[in-house]
Amino acid sequence: MAKQTAADVMTPAPTTIDQTETLEAAGRLMAEQDVGVLVVRAGPTAVGVVTDRDLVVRGLAAGLDADATVQQVTTDKVITVGVSDPVETVVEVMRAGAVRRAPVLDGNVLAGIVSIGDLAVERDPDSALADISRARPNR
Question: Which class is 6-133 in CATH?
Answer without folding.
Answer: alpha beta
